[in-house]
Description:
The protein has 17 helices and 17 strands. The strands form four sheets. The chain has a five-stranded antiparallel beta sheet. Strands 7-9-10-12-11 form a five-stranded mixed beta sheet. 51% of the residues lie in helices and 18% in strands.
Amino acid sequence: MPDQIFLLGNTVIMVAYAAVTAAIAVPVARAGQLRTNRLATATALIFFSCAVGHGFHASAAYRALVSGHAHAGMTAGSWAAACWDLLTAAVGVYYWTLRRGYGVMLRRGAIYPDPTGQQHLDVADARERAAHDLAESHRATLAAVVEHSDDAIIGVTPAGTVTAWNGGAERLFGYTAAEVVGHPASMLADSAGLGEQSDVLSRIVAGERSLHYEATRVHKDGSPLEIAVSVAPIRGRDNTIIGVSVVARDIAAAKQAAERRRQVEERTHQAQRMESLGKLAGGVAHDFNNILAIIVNYTDFAAEQSADPAVRADLEHVRIAADRAISLTHQLLVFTRGDTIQPQDIDLNASIDEVRAMLHRTIGEDIDLRTEPAPAPLTVHADAGQIQQVLLNLSLNARDAMPQGGTLVIEADRARLDEHQLDMHPELAPGAYARLQVSDTGEGIEPEVAAHIFEPFYTTKPRGQGTGLGLSTVYGIVAEAGGSINVYSEPGVGTTFRVYLPLVETAQGAGVTRAVEAAVPQGHQETVLVVEDEPALGRIVARILSQGGYRVLSAASGPEALELDRDQGCDLLLTDVIMPGMSGPRLAELLAARHPGLPVLFMSGYSNGLLGSTHVLDPDIAFIEKPFTADDLLRRVSSVLSSTTTRS
């Protein structure tokens, strides 16, 4: 019985050890580590050795039972078993040496590590940790960028509940994240925007990739916000939409800047149109002034020589029509900035007083005229007559806008402009200015009309009642004086024109009052060299001067005038400014080289900048504007000769 138990026990142990050997060796072999993973191989060898040793014991016990010689079998098998046990012991020693060398003698779960494989595992693990750290760094950077972005970046669920809210959203809408997250995004929209929000979410959930649009939303304080919105879906790992990202930006300032640029471009185009029209009008006015000078003076000649009252009455009508044409031509020249002016320091309060006196006679009893001068003298450097013309033109336009009567107010004060001032014609630098205001309680001006009122020949008055040059003339005068004009109007309420002019803190010149002129002075046979390329006008000038007591030499060009002077000499040069071949200033230079100190009187209806700079007469230049009357010419000639005699 003991032999049978011995046989059974060794057989079971052999099978168990063989199973353990296979459980170790097979996975290691499949991994290709039989040579490299020596610890696993040694462990498998120990169990294999034990399995073989117990197999020997079982075999010996079986043979003894079969032969009936148990003692002999045991003796014969003992040698083989003993040898195998010694081999197993050697393998065990080798195994424990490896275990201690691998440092896993007492560690759980590390019985059979492969050093090469473990090294690969360690490298892979380090790489995985580095990738994880880099991803975390990227996520942290992205979160910081989102949080500190000036744009509002918002996350919402497909149903419209807010899930994310950055600092830009707090600044734009006024709500903190705690006040918004978890609440519906509809709290940011007004009643008109709710449907829009719902439609956008529906379209995104339905599959649209992104949407861009402008909308109006509501700030926490209830004020409206103009924003540009970009909406895009957020997809999960399975490509289903799990949320919606919303990026919003305040565009109110951008829209204001765009509107400002549009207005500047529009004013630039308007100035270019006015400049082109001005060049054309100026050329026409130059020739027209010569014609008017002929008409006016021949009319005066005929009126003086006629004793028939009917003829004189007819000539008076001609003279009135000519005066209207002169006024129209003068307006054209002012608009084109081709008119030569004589600026001086003037007090706007005095200008208002003179205009008030003129308006009382013409404005009508149904207009309540009020003037409010500045509390202290308000001095500007401009042509006194032109400033009066500005006030008259604006006042008469105001009168026409009040056919049923009303109130007209003319006032002067100081004003300060900043760089954000809009609707200035032309642009004006920031600073302190003198301001003239002409206000009425008339019909007002529609916005589409106000956009064109400073264009020449533009008028809303019936045919025959307006030239379309009144406000363009005002614009030309104001711009020439370095100022600007602004108009504000409300239809049915009234209109206010504001004229801004550079201030002169210390007045240097005379005021606007003019001395009463004495009788027309007569000449004493001084020789006047008249140079005029328009023959008819030249004959008129010669006739006026001859009748006024002067000896006249007439020439139609510069070279002809030089020849006359060489032969006969002269005491005064009276020359047109613009002539073919040789201009008046050039002729004056050549004669001044012959006769230093020779007095020169220029005449022109359009100097085109040939006298002085920017069409403004230099103080030492004598000038008479066409068309002129006989009295005007004689007084100017006498004045030039007298001033020359005084200086000499």
